[in-house]
Amino acid sequence: MAKKMKIIPLGDRVLVKPISPENKKTKSGIIIPDTIDKERPEQGEVVAAGPGKEVSGKLQKLSVKKGDKVIFSKYGYDEIKIDGEEFFILKEESILAVIS
Amino acid sequence: MAKKMKIIPLGDRVLVKPISPENKKTKSGIIIPDTIDKERPEQGEVVAAGPGKEVSGKLQKLSVKKGDKVIFSKYGYDEIKIDGEEFFILKEESILAVIS
Amino acid sequence: MAKKMKIIPLGDRVLVKPISPENKKTKSGIIIPDTIDKERPEQGEVVAAGPGKEVSGKLQKLSVKKGDKVIFSKYGYDEIKIDGEEFFILKEESILAVIS
Amino acid sequence: MAKKMKIIPLGDRVLVKPISPENKKTKSGIIIPDTIDKERPEQGEVVAAGPGKEVSGKLQKLSVKKGDKVIFSKYGYDEIKIDGEEFFILKEESILAVIS
Amino acid sequence: MAKKMKIIPLGDRVLVKPISPENKKTKSGIIIPDTIDKERPEQGEVVAAGPGKEVSGKLQKLSVKKGDKVIFSKYGYDEIKIDGEEFFILKEESILAVIS
Amino acid sequence: MAKKMKIIPLGDRVLVKPISPENKKTKSGIIIPDTIDKERPEQGEVVAAGPGKEVSGKLQKLSVKKGDKVIFSKYGYDEIKIDGEEFFILKEESILAVIS
Amino acid sequence: MAKKMKIIPLGDRVLVKPISPENKKTKSGIIIPDTIDKERPEQGEVVAAGPGKEVSGKLQKLSVKKGDKVIFSKYGYDEIKIDGEEFFILKEESILAVIS
């Protein structure tokens, strides 16, 4: 990401950088089949997390943070490109699990 | 915008001026692909923000303000023209992230 | 409107008189394209506003009032004619912004 | 309606007698176009109103009462005939405005 | 219904016995047209009523009781036969009005 | 069911054993027509009931219990086989009435 | 699962390892027909469970835990592969019953 620029997701959204297939195998032992389709969840790393969502007047914080390796559903994401790299903006709801 | 006229979005809505593609590259380093379709989020600048939305009797203020550079989803926006320029009126929910 | 008759919108509804295209340009500087379709928002003036909507036992008042110039979405409106003139009855939710 | 019979709408429902077109013009000055289709609101008179709807344990009373002249949306109504005359049973939500 | 058997509707449901067309006219003066289709409400008598529905930890009792003559919408009903006779099980929500 | 195995439905679900048509007639006098289709409710016996559903932090217990004869809607059920016999797992919401 | 890696489901999700058909018969006596289709529930073992879901500011814990044998609906699951083995990530809502 450009040095002087920062992306701050709104509410309960997170900015996620998908992990490339070769990294998936070696780093974590998890293999999500290469036949990637819309319905398959994918692996990524949280690059930035929003402050949380206000529910009944109280801020409900996110349970993921920057640096977390996550498995996320590709349903309902928004895709952006920053300096040629692809990122996803998704709601915390779309994150299925954290890999630790 | 005309000098003597002011547009005040209602509730949790914001008035956003889309940023033209040439400005996207130089200003912020973010490139959202030129193949703009309905599903792709877009960049813009908040020109006016509503007072917020009343939830259970309490006013829930917006987390974006005039001047914020934002990435917004194009789902569910309303488009208006002011003096020939195009603007979007959208709910804060459609704003994915702030660029700072 | 006939002298001896008054229309009182129910709940969070407002009665809006659309502004004719010629008035749009001169009065406010806003031009909403003439190619008016269902999806385009339109300009109008609030002629009457309901008392508000009861939410969890409390009356939530409207934030627009009689005389307000507004931009409204044409989604979900009801159309009536009074003495040959056309009016819209819509929920406050359909009002996008106030022009001041 | 038959003398010895009374219809009591349940909850937030009202029993409405539509006003015939000729009466619409002379009585109130409102003309709802004769090209009546499903989407057009219609005029009528409240013949009976339910006690209201229980929301979170509290009874939320109706804001219309017997004798009110109303404009109502024809979406989601139920139609019955009493002694050959046509009546509508609709939720208060379908009443757009009161004519006074 | 068989002597030794009792049907107790659950929650906010009621067991209703439809009134045959000939009874409709003579008993109550109400005529629901013979062209009975899915969308037309029908007349019946409440044979058994459930205890009510629990809302936010409180039991919200039904406003109809055994013996009530009712007009009900045929949307979303379940139909059963007891000793050859037809009955409907429906939610109180489907009861439009009580005839008294 | 196998002796050493027990099935405990989760939340507001119940495990129901459908009653075969011949038993329906003799036992209870209720005849649900043999033309069984998806829309017809069916008779069964509750074999196991879940602990209930947590609503706003409070456990809302079920109103049916093991041994109850019930009429249930076949909408939204899950079907399993235990030792060759067919059972339904359904939410209490799908139970229309108890036969006592 | 790889030794140095742990998958922690988010919120009210669980990680489930489906039980192979041969194990189904011998272990528990339950036979879910081999004609497995989308609509049929399946058997599995909870491998990891999320902390629960925040509802109105309170954490609502899960009622299943690691090691539980469960019957789950295959509606709305996400499928991942870990070291060649197939796992499901699903919401607790999709778990129909626990086998004990």
Q: What is the CATH class name of the domain at 46-100 in chain A?
A: Mainly Beta
Our estimate of the beta-strand percent of chain A is 35-45%
Order of helices and strands of chain A: EEHEEEEEEE
Provide the CATH topology of the domain at 46-100 in chain A: 10 Kd Chaperonin, Protein Cpn10, Chain O
CATH-defined superfamily of the domain at 46-100 in chain A: GroES chaperonin
The greatest interface between two protein chains, and residues involved on each side, is:
A-B, 26 and 23 residues
Strand order of the largest sheet of chain A: 7-8-2-3-6-9
Number of helices of chain A: 1
Distance between the termini of chain A: 24 Å
Shape of chain A: globular
Quaternary state of this entry equals homoheptamer
The count of DSSP E runs of length 2 or more, i.e. the number of strands of chain A, is 9
What is the annotated CATH architecture of the domain at 46-100 in chain A? Roll
What class would the helix/strand composition of chain A place it in? mainly beta
State the helical fraction of chain A.
Answer: under 10%
Average pLDDT reading of chain A = 82
Question: What is the gyration radius of chain A calculated from CA atoms?
Answer: 14 Å
Unreliable stretches covering 5 or more consecutive residues of chain A:
34-38
Main sheet record of chain A: 6 strands, antiparallel
